[in-house]
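retry 2 of 3: previous attempt timed out while embedding FE2/S2 (inorganic) cluster. Reduced batch size to 1 and resubmitted. Inputs unchanged:
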Amino acid sequence: MSKVVLTGSGRELEACTGQSLLAVLQEADHPVATSCGGVATCALCRVTVKQGKEHLSPVNEDEITHLGSVAKILGLRLACQAIVRGEGTVVLEVPEVEDVAAKKAEKAARLRQARAQGSGRR
Ligand code: FES
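retry 2 succeeded.
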């Protein structure tokens, strides 16, 4: 049995080998953003591993695609792709769900504005 400790609240969650961080968070009723249900397509489940990355599966290609090549350096993971391996403690920073939704809305607004400006130049 491993342990996932959340920064901020200090809450400790139990985690089993083979479980994704997304599953650990959802089983503990901790809010985590997702729209794809854990198949690595939405990138909303982004978390930061502060300690204990050695107790997780290696960063995979889907994560590099969504998070960029600096993911390993910064400790960024997709919670749905980071699988608990062995026993140990993982310290995790999980963004507020509201923050993720707001950032997504901001990005969509920027894209709409860029498209509108682009179409206005023609
Ligand atoms: S839940 Fe969608 S990418 Fe992880």
